[in-house]
Sequence to fold (93 residues):
Amino acid sequence: MALMNTPYDIAIITINYNSNSHTINCIDSILSHQPSDLSLQIIVVDNASEINDIDKLTHALSNYSMVNIVYSNINLGFSSGNMLGAQHASAKY
Fold:
């Protein structure tokens, strides 16, 4: 079911686990190809990465208002990580 009157058209969920450089590159790529008429919400679920990885990720993404980082205290795995991200989505699709 699509949410009405949301600020974003599409929510993209990605999982990070001690791979901040890959996640940052992924988000940079998404944003560089984003159509101007489409608003994106990007949700990064961190699956209990090491603190150094979390710090680098948080610092690199702090200037992107459309990026939300959701921190998990335990590694939920890919499927449950995506479900956690979906709970934070507020986009139409």
